[in-house]
Amino acid sequence: MIDDISAARDAALTAIEAATTTERVDALDTELLGKRGDLARLKARLGSLATIDERRRAGQLLNSATEAASSALATRRDELRRAALDARVASERLDLTEFASPPQRGHEHIVTQAWERLEDVFIGLGFQVAEGPEVETDWHNFEALNMPISHPARSDWDTLFVDHGEPGRTVLRTHTSPVQIRAMLAAEPPIYIISPGRVFRRDTPDATHMPVFHQIEGLVIDRDISMADLAGTIEAFTTAFFGTDFTSRLRPSYFPFTEPSAEFDIRTPSGDWLELGGCGMVHPNVLRAGGIDPEQWSGFAFGFGIDRMAKERHAVGDLREMFTGDIRFAEQF
Ligand code: FA5
Predict the structure, then answer these.
(1) How far does the centroid of ligand 1 lie from the alpha carbon of residue 146, in Å?
(2) Hey, CA dihedral for 33, 38, 39, 42, is it positive or negative?
(3) What is the pTM assigned to this prediction?
(4) What is the pLDDT of residues 168-177, one digit of tens each?
(5) Which of 12, 165, 292, 305 could form a disulfide with 69 if both were Cys (CB 3.0 to 4.6 A apart)?
């Protein structure tokens, strides 16, 4: 009897394990646990056992076999249901990836590209990058740069004023040159800095002018610096930035904060000359305003228009095209 129960139990568990459909599990449920099932038949034979002890042992074994079969049926039913559900979910899943275009990486605007490239070129020449505020005091933007309040050269910069403090004394910086003063006041010479940034003027937009544009300032203060150092630096920069199809020239000019002063022009491969910026030897009054003794130190400074450099590098016809925000324009570069 004991052996029969064990055998019936093992056969039941093997059959349940082998069931591959829920219908088969339902059929096994009736077959094994139903009134005419194997286990029920064994139960009917319990009465034929000789002793109470034998009956008790066989009864316990039969109960545990019934429980094992019933829990195996429940487990198998669950497994099969879950597998059926997974198969349905998988078959009904919509794969939309083929309809979506792959994500595209953007890139920097050509002015930012030029800005970063300029930094790279000058860092390679040994310069450090300095920063200054876009809202400036009249003193940093003009006065310390050798343009006292009555100086006629102030009108060369069509200044935008900020309504702050004493009227007319706070400006949107018209050039990056005030960073020269800030750099001199912040550190002892030797100074080798560049400072790229945004500047503002009441200029009417045209092919080469914008009211908001970008400049890069350069300042070198050291012992025995001469105009030859300035020319050499500008030449090295022109080839590094534009390549060897471009040439540059320095043309005598006037700025209140440099003496002598020059205009820096480049010749494009098409043969046109384009003014990129001003430069010159730092005026002694500017050195003094920056707390530097002009008897001991000398230096040069320059200020170039970054937007015009980007325009030339990419042969863009009109500066205004660069700031329309039209993605079709930006994507070309
Ligand atoms: C200056 O702003 C001087 N601070 C440059 C300087 C620095 C001279 C250090 C000496 C020593 P200027 O106003 O010429 O100079 O402007 C310099 C350059 O900025 C111009 O050559 C041009 O390339 C660019 N620029 C000027 N105005 C505009 C504008 N409205 N739109 C775009 N670029 C401009």
Answers:
(1) 17
(2) positive
(3) 0.71
(4) 899 999 999 9
(5) 12
